[in-house]
Amino acid sequence: MKTIQDCLKERILIIDGAMGTMIQRHKLTEADYRGVRFKNWHCDVKGNNDLLNITQPEIIIGIHLQYLDAGADIIETNTFSSTSIAMADYEMQSLAYELNVAAAQCAREAIKRSGKEAWVAGAIGPLNKTLSLSPDVNNPGFRAVTFDEVVNAYYEQVKGLVDGGTDILLIETIFDTLNAKGAIFAIKKYFRDTGKTPLPIMISGTITDASGRTLSGQTLEAFFTSVMHARPLSIGLNCALGAKEMRPHIEELSQIASCFVSAYPNAGLPNAMGEYDEKPEDTGHYLEEWAKEGFVNIVGGCCGTTPDHIRHIAEHVKDIKPRQLPVVEKELA
User: Fold this and answer.
1) pTM score > 0.90 for this model?
2) Contact 114, 108 (CB under 8 A)
3) pLDDT tens figures, 239-255
4) Which contacts qualify for 244-248: CB closer than 8 Å, 24 or more apart?
5) Which of 121, 137, 170, 212 is the most exposed place for a label (fewest CB within 10 A)?
6) Is residue 159 included in any domain, yes or no?
7) Structural domain contains residue 327
């Protein structure tokens, strides 16, 4: 099997679509989330999608298989909230490591069943607490979490993802770059501590509105500059915006990034009911245009996207050459 770096030079790779959107289709009950093992858990767990890696692995494997069948080259583990910090909402902090191992194994099993070549990206979410902003409007200096706590939580997640068999580590949906720096530090520390061969890192930020800034206030260029010390395989954008709204930001990123560029937008903007209406063929046409302009190396979907969206995206970009990496001058003229 070729390395992902070799494949990225040859063609545009496809990353999968939304996991939550697909889980919602199953209309799972509290009992479904609990399974047998957590039948008597002391608080509600419905909505803890990452718990399904343990209690309903066949559902997660099945969703991965649908995306692989649709043309995905990279599938993300169902671990967006699989940290001790995020799991505190369900008082399941002790399960963080196990959730990541189980999720990676689900993804690996799906690839095995599909019979195709693909990569597993360990999804590392942004956390539900932020290092850059105070949750208390009356105390702007207050933080709900410390940098060391963030690093420790991400370190445990990285260990689980690596032990479970991921090929890539994906720090995604970044709205606070300081949180992302905690994840980067945790990844680097883990591989230093263990002596294992480091896995490629993908980084994907989130521009929250028309201002072109992240939630913590950075411009796209500032965000890029802040994380490039990680020497990522790719940098990109996902979530918050549909493809139409994300386009100028992806164009800008493609002009400044010295690595590969990824983009997986939502299926348009949510309607009044919080649902996504953009049709798969429309998403496919948007991303085809980006590909023809030479903006991207990896494309896929985020909130609201389904295997149908991924299938259309894959079909629309399959014959288009990937964005060429720029030649970076190492010396001043």
Assistant:
1) yes
2) no
3) 999 999 999 999 999 99
4) 244/268, 244/286, 245/210, 245/269, 246/207, 247/286, 247/289, 247/290, 248/212
5) 137
6) yes
7) no
